[in-house]
C-alpha cells in the first residue's frame, strides 16, 4: 500500500476546491456555470508593474535571489510598512515569501509543536486552521457574530486563549465577511493579549487597502507597539495590486522569528522569483490611484450585491466594510426544498443545489467555520454579479 505522512491524515480538502471541482464537472456536461467562488481580483496587473518585471528580466535579474527577498523589494516593503502602517522594520525584520500563504506556513512550521493551539476567529480564511494542523497545531475558534458586524469581540478572544495557545490570528479586513476592526476593537484585543506574553500574533492585513465608506484598517503592531516584538504583520501584493499569480507576500516581525522563518523557507522554496520581486517593488512604490480605483469598484459592486441580497426574503446580509466578498445568511432557507427537489439542511446543501440548479458557484459558510452563510466574491463583472443575484432570487423564491 502506498503510504502518506501522518500529518496529512484527516485534513479535509477545502470546500472552495470542492465547489470548483463540481463547477468544472457541470461545465464538462455543457452546462453554463458562472462563478462567485474565487477570491481573486478580476482586474489585470497594472501595466507599469508588468513593465518593471520585463525590465528586470532583461537587465539580468535572473539569478537565485536571497532567501528572504531582494534588497530592493525589502527596502520597498520597509517604506510601505512605514508609510501605510506607521511601522518601522529593519532589513532583518522583513522577509518576502511566495504569497502571504507561505508567510503563514513558515511561521507555523517554525513555532508549532504537537498539540499547540492556534486561536482563529471565525469565520476564517481556510488556510489558517489547515496549515496549523499540518504542523500538529490545534485550531481553537473564536466566533465573530453577525450581530457584532463580524468584528472580533475581546471577551470572546479571552475565552479562547488557554495555557496551550501559541498563536492568535487576526484578519481584518476579513475574508470572508469583509469586517474591519476599529482602533478601539484592536486596543481591546491588545489588552487581552498583554495578559498572555507567550502568545505570538499573526496579523493578516492583506486586504488593508480594500476598505469602504470611510472605514480604516489598523495594524495591531502600531496600535499596541508593546506587542510588536511578538507580532507578524503579514501583507502582500495579490489583492491590492491584482497580482495573485506573481506569488509575492511579505512579513514584518521580530528578528528571531523572521530568522526561523527564513530557515524554513530556505529548505522549501528558497527566495521568491526574482522577476516577480521586481514587479512587487514597482507596485509598492507605484502610484496609489489604481489601487484606489479598484477599491472603489469593489465598493460599488458590494453595495449593488448586498442591496440585491437584502431584497430577497429569507436572506440577511451585513454590509461589508472591506475586502471583496458578501456573506449572506441563509438561516431562513433551512428545512426547505428546492424547485429541483433537493432538501436544504445546511449551507453546503444550499451551495450545491444552487450550483446544480442555477449554475452559480459560491462557497458555503461551513468552509469558513461559520454557518449557515454563503460567500459570494464581488471580484467579478457587474453583469455576472447581476445575473448571479437574479438567479439567487429565483432560487430562494422557488423554495417550498
Ligand atoms: N490572507 C487572506 C485572508 C487571503 O484571503 C489570502 C488569499 O486568498 C491570502 C492571505 C494569501 O494570498 P497570497 O498567498 O496570494 O498572498
UniProtKB/TrEMBL annotation:
Signal peptide span: none
PROSITE patterns: AA_TRANSFER_CLASS_1 (PS00105)
A GO term, aspect molecular function: L-aspartate:2-oxoglutarate aminotransferase activity
Enzyme kind, highest EC tier: transferase
Stored Pfam families: Aminotran_1_2 (PF00155)
Catalytic activity: L-aspartate + 2-oxoglutarate = oxaloacetate + L-glutamate
Alphabetical list of CDD domains matching this protein: AAT_like (cd00609)
Transmembrane segments: none
Listed EC numbers: 2.6.1.-
Keywords from the named record: Aminotransferase, Pyridoxal phosphate, Transferase
All residue ranges annotated as the Aminotransferase class I/classII large domain in the record: 32-392
InterPro entries: Aminotransferase_I/II_large, AspAT/PAT-like, NHTrfase_class1_PyrdxlP-BS, PyrdxlP-dep_Trfase, PyrdxlP-dep_Trfase_major, PyrdxlP-dep_Trfase_small
Gene3D superfamilies: Aspartate Aminotransferase, domain 1, Type I PLP-dependent aspartate aminotransferase-like (Major domain)
Quaternary structure (record): Homodimer.
Protein name: Aminotransferase
Lineage: Bacteria, Pseudomonadati, Pseudomonadota, Alphaproteobacteria, Acetobacterales
Amino acid at each position: 500500500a502506498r503510504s502518506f505522512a501522518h500529518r496529512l491524515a484527516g485534513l479535509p480538502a477545502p470546500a472552495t476546491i470542492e465547489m470548483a471541482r463540481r463547477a468544472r464537472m457541470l461545465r464538462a456536461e455543457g452546462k453554463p456555470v458562472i462563478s462567485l467562488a474565487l477570491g481573486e481580483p478580476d482586474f489585470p496587473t497594472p501595466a507599469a508593474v508588468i513593465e518593471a518585471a520585463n525590465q528586470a528580466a532583461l537587465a539580468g535579474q535572473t539569478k537565485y535571489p536571497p532567501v528572504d527577498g531582494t534588497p530592493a523589494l525589502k527596502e520597498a516593503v520597509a517604506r510601505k510598512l512605514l508609510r501605510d502602517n506607521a511601522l518601522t522594520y529593519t532589513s532583518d525584520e522583513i522577509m518576502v515569501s511566495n504569497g502571504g500563504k507561505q508567510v503563514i506556513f513558515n511561521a507555523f512550521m517554525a513555532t508549532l509543536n504537537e498539540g499547540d493551539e492556534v486561536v482563529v476567529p471565525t469565520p476564517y480564511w481556510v488556510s489558517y486552521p489547515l496549515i496549523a494542523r499540518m504542523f500538529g497545531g490545534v485550531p481553537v475558534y473564536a466566533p465573530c457574530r453577525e450581530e457584532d458586524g463580524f468584528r472580533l469581540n475581546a471577551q470572546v478572544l479571552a475565552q479562547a486563549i488557554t495555557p496551550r495557545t501559541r498563536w492568535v490570528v487576526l484578519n481584518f479586513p476579513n475574508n470572508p465577511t469583509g469586517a474591519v476592526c476599529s482602533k478601539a476593537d484592536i486596543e481591546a484585543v491588545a489588552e487581552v493579549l498583554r495578559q498572555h506574553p507567550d502568545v505570538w500574533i499573526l496579523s493578516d492585513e492583506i486586504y488593508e487597502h480594500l476598505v469602504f465608506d470611510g472605514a480604516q484598517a489598523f495594524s495591531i503592531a502600531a496600535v499596541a507597539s508593546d506587542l510588536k516584538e511578538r507580532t507578524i504583520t503579514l501583507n502582500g501584493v495579490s489583492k491590492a495590486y491584482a497580482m495573485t499569480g506573481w506569488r509575492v507576500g511579505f512579513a514584518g516581525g521580530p528578528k528571531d522569528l523572521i530568522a526561523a522563518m527564513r530557515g524554513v523557507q530556505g529548505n522549501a522554496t528558497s527566495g521568491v522569483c526574482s522577476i516577480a520581486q521586481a514587479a512587487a517593488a514597482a507596485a509598492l512604490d507605484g502610484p496609489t490611484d489604481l489601487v484606489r480605483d479598484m477599491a472603489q469598484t469593489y465598493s460599488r459592486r458590494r453595495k449593488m450585491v448586498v442591496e440585491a441580497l437584502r431584497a430577497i426574503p429569507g436572506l440577511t446580509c451585513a454590509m461589508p466594510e472591506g475586502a471583496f466578498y458578501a456573506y449572506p445568511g441563509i438561516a431562513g432557507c433551512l428545512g426547505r426544498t428546492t424547485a429541483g427537489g433537493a432538501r436544504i439542511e445546511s449551507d453546503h446543501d444550499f451551495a450545491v443545489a444552487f450550483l446544480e440548479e442555477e449554475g452559480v458557484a459560491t462557497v458555503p459558510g461551513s468552509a469558513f467555520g461559520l454557518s449557515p452563510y454563503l460567500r459570494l466574491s464581488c471580484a467579478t463583472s457587474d453583469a455576472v454579479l447581476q445575473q448571479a443575484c437574479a438567479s439567487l432570487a429565483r432560487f430562494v423564491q422557488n423554495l417550498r
